[in-house]
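Tokens as discussed.
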């Protein structure tokens, strides 16, 4: 999609609390009958964002409780797709003159993740549910670092001001916006996985 000078910005108000190595979820389920489940390390989840989000999400279902200790069940997550592509462009800007350049510059991206989820018995390795897929897509905008119109404005007194300090996170570089989108996509995935598990007909099992 090609766009002119207009920019649209998407703000992700994320409140992600990374816990200690045990990933104990704040606000964990108070249901003592909830089944204990462990979550092994997830490849391509280097910062543990998805794992931590999952621990918190499944706790709210009341059906499962995450533990870093031995559990009767384990939740396995494998990414089948995890990529970012460019979906929007604008005309580039000459950094010296501020004039438009007949060269397209990317200014909108999209993060796509597809994960295969398996809930299995820790001892027998038999799946308790048919493995299922969940997906998430998050679109995001970012600024052209060479475009003065994107990073500064003139205030009422005629002084140049940086747009970034007033943007409340809405203006970001491509790298920063991509990271925000990844966080949002991981949280979305965690919520969807928790919803499926909450509806799953799992018989109680003593650990």
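Sequence:
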């Amino acid at each position: 999609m090609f766009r002119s000078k207009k920019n649209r910005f998407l703000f992700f108000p994320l409140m992600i609390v990374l816990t200690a190595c045990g990933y104990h979820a704040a606000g964990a389920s108070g249901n003592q009958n909830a089944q204990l489940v462990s979550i092994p390390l997830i490849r391509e989840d280097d910062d543990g964002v998805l794992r931590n989000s999952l621990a918190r999400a499944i706790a709210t279902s009341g059906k499962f409780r995450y533990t870093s200790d031995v559990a009767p069940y384990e939740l396995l997550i494998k990414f089948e797709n995890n990529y970012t592509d460019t979906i929007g462009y604008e005309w580039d800007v000459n950094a010296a003159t501020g004039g438009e350049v007949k060269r397209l510059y990317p200014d909108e991206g999209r993060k796509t993740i597809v994960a295969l989820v398996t809930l299995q018995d820790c001892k027998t390795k038999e799946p308790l549910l048919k493995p299922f897929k969940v997906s998430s897509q998050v679109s995001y905008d970012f600024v052209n670092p060479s475009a003065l119109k994107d990073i500064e404005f003139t205030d009422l007194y005629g002084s140049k001001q940086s747009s970034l300090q007033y943007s409340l996170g809405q203006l970001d570089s491509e790298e920063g916006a991509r990271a925000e989108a990844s966080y949002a996509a991981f949280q979305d995935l965690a919520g969807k996985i928790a919803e499926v598990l909450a509806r799953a007909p799992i018989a109680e099992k003593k650990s």
